[in-house]
Design a protein that fits this description.
The structure holds two protein chains of two kinds.
Chain A lengths: L1 H31 L6 H21 L5 H28 L7 H22 L7 E2 L8 E4 L2 E4 H23 L1 H11 L1 H6 L4 H27 L1 E2 L3 H16 L4 H21 L7 H15 L14
Chain B lengths: L2 H26 L3 H20 L1 H13 L1 H18 L4 H27 L6 H19 L3 H23 L4 H21 L16 E2 L2 E2 L4 E3 L2 E3 L2 H23 L2 H11 L1 H6 L4 H27 L9 H14 L4 H17 L7 H15 L14
Antiparallel strand pairs in B: 1-2, 3-4
The chains are: A mainly alpha, B mainly alpha.
């Protein structure tokens, strides 16, 4: 029983980090019908910027650790937000009206460029890098139940970030503009919305969430490598698709399904740990084949 | 022969010889500067031809009039290439590699080029062919020539089973299914014990014809040609075969149906085309040729491991098709040559290969989104 609760907490934490990435996919797809395949690599960049900032702080001597954590989150917020918008301007904007295969391959190529740049230009980039312990390493024991405080904290931070994004989308004027664009971009333009800027803001938000997800993923995996973004991106995309591409709640439901499949299959299927991704992807394929519109998504009608 | 014809044929053959010489020099040069020089020479040459309309017109006219001559000359060059390159076995090996990618890309072209199906499962089908035949060869000792079609059929079977349910999905969803499938196959190969795990399968026997093993040097007229040439000729033969199959398919009802689906799926269905059947057919055929390529790869390398069948393979092949030109077999083959040779030639930047590769794709998509050889308007007959 205690093991089960531990697994549940772990699964929740895992799902919440997936959700941070998959919400980005849903955001971009909702806004301009584009799948940004290097989104996972943006998350990886977030993790690496966390490592670099931590390294800079170590040189400065004694700084309280909570301050370092705050600064890491803040600076990553700015850096990754800037980078994400930059990628949108340079790589995605030219393909806004071209066939989907072009966008797909362009963003995959962007992913290759990001990954290889980190591998080549980060010192010893092809080796796994130790991620600093920026979250408090405290364990609580409730009865026989061992609660890792950092796992709980990761879940809470993700939860907070996602709710914040929901509020932003649903309550602010910019959020209204984003929703307007996702319904009909031309009509939104006629209403005086500058769709260029709004799309850039969408990418800013999505990339910030992914970058912070990178920090959180790094702090529970304790090591990060240049290629974690590939798998992370595909998982996030899968979660968004399972839940229904373009639907925010769907992205969260999909992430929960994926996270729970992974953690439960590695815990309860004998010898299942190396195959946890296989189980996750089989579930993804099943969903795609039998319910392609996703759990909460609506099936797109065929237009003639 | 008339006087005029001679005046046309001789400069034409001269230009083609010039082109082949440049290609040959590109292959044997190893210094970065000389390769860059050759590359800029090629670019200048093509600009030069394009700038002078008379020359351009003359070449186009010659190509249409003396097509057979040009093709025969090209075939002679391709056959003679290993003899010219006999002191550069590694270059022959790279050409073999390019041929392998050309096989994969020709198969994929039926999907993303002709039918507009997004498919990132090339890595998986390639692996299916390679592993099936390698296991059969090791455990049962079957010969390469029996296994070549078996590898194709095994992959085609997988393609059929995967394709039947998947063709209900479209666009991004289909791309995700195929990506997930590639990752599943990679993870399974890495973790299962009977596929050798991360170490893969070693000591796959080389193909043999009678007593002649493919790892022995060719002795011809006192010349010694390195053993890589055997595989080169085999690959060239298979690429030529696939090219002919491509031609026959393209101008048959099947190719017509594929193109109709690409242009408008609903309209195609209204015309009485069985969309699901056509799509699954294109999927399975692609898997078949990928399986053959996988078999070739397994037997030529004699050692395979999951690292050769990652998602990167799928990306590379998709990039080749897009860079070469969708729905254009000649473009796809040239794209395969370019995309394998250029990263391979810059030995200095060996470490930067993937980075250069990514930049090439991005630049191509931004600057020439239709590919080097854009698809031509189909003649409906």
């Amino acid at each position: 029983m205690t093991q089960f609760i531990e697994q549940i907490i772990f699964a929740l934490m895992l799902s919440s980090t997936y959700a941070l990435i998959s919400v980005g996919f849903t955001l971009f797809f909702g806004a301009i019908n584009i799948v940004h395949f290097s989104h996972g690599d943006v998350a990886m960049l977030g993790a690496f910027s966390g490592i670099i900032i931590y390294g800079l702080f170590r040189f400065m001597g004694s700084v309280p650790s909570w301050l370092i954590t705050m600064v890491i989150f803040l600076l990553t917020f700015i850096i990754i937000g800037f980078l994400g918008t930059f990628f949108e301007r340079t790589v995605i904007k030219p393909f806004r009206k071209s066939p989907l295969l072009m966008v797909l391959v362009a963003t995959i190529a962007l992913g290759i460029v990001i990954r290889e740049s980190v591998r080549l230009f980060y010192p010893q980039g092809s080796n796994p890098q130790v991620f600093p312990k920026i979250l408090p390493q405290v364990n609580y024991e409730i009865g026989r139940l061992l609660m890792r405080f950092d796992h709980l904290l990761i879940f809470l931070i993700s939860f907070f970030l996602i709710s914040f994004m929901f509020l932003f989308i649903n309550r602010t004027k910019t959020g209204l503009a984003i929703r307007a664009i996702s319904q009909d971009i031309e009509a939104a333009n006629l209403m005086g919305i500058n769709s260029d800027i709004i799309i850039a803001i969408t990418f800013l938000i999505g990339s910030i969430l992914a970058g912070l997800a990178g920090i959180l993923i790094g702090s529970y995996q304790t090591v990060v490598r240049f290629d974690i973004g590939l798998m992370g991106g595909i998982k996030g995309f899968s979660a968004a698709v399972v839940g229904g591409l373009g639907n925010f709640y769907g992205a969260i439901v999909g992430s929960l399904i994926l996270g729970f499949t992974e953690s439960l299959s590695s815990a309860y299927i004998p010898g299942g740990a190396p195959y946890k991704d296989v189980f996750a992807f089989i579930i993804v394929i099943f969903f795609l084949v039998f319910k392609p519109s996703g759990i909460l998504g609506r099936a797109a009608p065929i237009k003639i | 022969m008339k006087r005029k014809e001679i005046f046309e044929i001789i400069p034409f053959i001269f230009i083609e010889t010039l082109f082949f010489t440049i290609a040959y020099l590109f292959l044997i040069f190893e210094k970065t500067y000389s390769i860059l020089g050759i590359l800029s020479g090629i670019i200048l040459f093509s600009i030069f031809i394009n700038k002078i309309p008379k020359l351009n017109f003359f070449l186009a006219k010659c190509f249409s009039e003396y097509k057979k001559l040009a093709i025969i000359y090209g075939i002679i060059f391709i056959i003679a290439l290993p003899i010219l390159l006999r002191n550069y076995p590694y270059q022959i090996f790279i050409l073999f590699n390019a041929g392998l990618f050309a096989l994969l890309a020709l198969g994929l072209n039926w999907q993303i080029g002709s039918t507009n199906i997004v498919n990132f499962a090339t890595g998986a089908s390639f692996a299916t062919g390679a592993y099936t035949t390698a296991l059969l060869a090791i455990h049962l000792g079957w010969s390469f020539w029996i296994l070549l079609p078996i590898g194709g059929l095994a992959a085609a079977g997988i393609g059929f089973i995967l394709g039947l349910p998947c063709m209900k999905t479209k666009t991004y969803y289909l791309s995700l299914v195929t990506i997930a499938f590639t990752l599943i196959v990679y993870l399974l190969l890495n973790n299962l014990s009977w596929t050798g795990g991360p170490d893969g399968i070693a000591d796959i026997p080389f193909p043999k014809i009678g007593n002649y093993s493919f790892d022995s040097t060719i002795r011809l007229l006192g010349l010694e040609i390195p053993f890589q040439a055997n595989f080169y000729y085999l690959t060239v033969f298979l690429v030529a075969l696939t090219f002919i199959v491509d031609r026959r398919l393209r101008y048959s009802r099947i190719g017509l149906a594929w193109n109709a689906i690409r242009n408008d799926e609903v309209a195609a269905e209204c015309q009485g085309i069985d969309v699901t059947y056509s799509k699954v057919l294109s999927f399975s055929l692609n898997f078949f040729f990928d399986g053959i390529a996988g078999t070739l790869f397994a037997f030529c390398m004699s050692h395979i491991s999951p690292e050769s069948f990652t998602f990167n393979v799928s990306i590379t092949v998709v990039a080749i098709v897009i860079v070469g030109g969708m729905d254009n077999a000649v473009g796809v083959i040239l794209g395969a040559l370019l995309m394998t040779l250029i990263p391979e030639k810059f030995q200095v930047f060996q470490n930067y290969r993937m980075l250069i590769f990514g930049f090439i794709i991005l630049m191509m998509l931004l600057l020439r989104p239709k590919g080097l050889f854009p698809q031509t308007v189909r003649k409906y007959y």
